Amino acid sequence: MATINRNVTHLIEDIEREVRYTQNYIGKNKLDKRVMQAMATVPREKFVPEHLQYHAFDDGPVPIGYGQTISQPYIVALMSDLLDLKPEHRVLEIGTGSGYQTAILAQLCEKVFSVERIVELSLQAQERFKQLKYKNIETRIGNGYHGWQEHAPYDGIIVTAAATHIPQPLIDQLKPGGNLVIPVSASYFGQSLMQVKKDLAGGIETKDILSVAFVPLVHDDE
Ligand code: SAH
After folding, report:
1. Per-residue pLDDT, 5
2. Please, are residues 155 and 139 in contact by the beta-carbon 8 Å criterion?
3. What's domain 2-212's superfamily in CATH?
């Protein structure tokens, strides 16, 4: 059996190094302290499948079944940072997956609403939230392309699968002053991580942050 010779301290060092490497793209050489604290607190090993435990503290994606992956920790930290969350904020996440990003967000704000279309992944994530005693996460099984109107508007929205365009329902469900963070496929340029800001007058400003590689956001099953 492979031994796990890494721990969360190594993971945090790797994220900090990756942030420094990419500082020209992301415009800073350190991420928000609260985000890094959350990354050090949430036990990633609880979100990684049993047989891949030795990858739990690697700064890379790991398969979680159903053709999906738990995202690279550096990207999870960066996207959380780009949301610019305050403790009183309410956030919508599309693509619960393993629930790891959801748990990080739950450390940073008042309430997280998370939508996942694959029933088994959502149920597994819900079980993890229960075991880890998260009380501020609400989940829904369905197509997140349409957001989650019932609890809108949100202070921040994060999509953890790559869309072909920015879904209009998500823009509509974002509060003025809020951020939408989403990977968007740009044909032969691959995918771009975008930060979409809604200003107080409802205007939209998009910023292209970094090239990324996400599984696709499924657009057409509802
Ligand atoms: N943040 C997750 C990433 C999981 S991968 C983690 O770190 O574990 C992206 C997830 O988005 C997958 O679980 C996939 O099933 C889900 N997904 C893709 N399209 C979706 C859609 N239209 N609505 C809801 N979830 C979707």
Report:
1. 77
2. no
3. Vaccinia Virus protein VP39 (3.40.50.150)
Cα of 51 from ligand 1 centre, angstroms: 21
| Sign of the torsion formed by the C-alpha atoms of 47, 92, 212 and 184 | positive
Over the stretch 105-115, which tens digit does the pLDDT of each residue have?
A: 999 999 999 99
Matching residue, tokens 């989940």: 139
Q: 179 CB under 6 A from ligand 1?
A: no
Work out the mean pLDDT of the chain and round it to a whole number: 95
pTM, rounded to two decimals:
0.96
Ordered strands of the 174-185 beta sheet: 137-141, 111-116, 90-94, 154-159, 174-185, 191-198, 204-212
Amino acid at 17: R
> Residue 114 — φ and ψ, nearest 5°?
-130, 130
pLDDT at 10: 96
User: Is the minimum distance from the CB of 156 to ligand 1 under 6 angstroms?
Assistant: no
**CA 221 to ligand 1: nearest atom:** 22
- List pLDDT tens digits, range 14-68: 999 999 999 999 999 999 999 999 999 999 999 999 999 999 999 999 999 999 9
CA of 161 from ligand 1 middle (Å) equals 5
Confidence of residue 190 (pLDDT cuts 50, 70, 90): confident
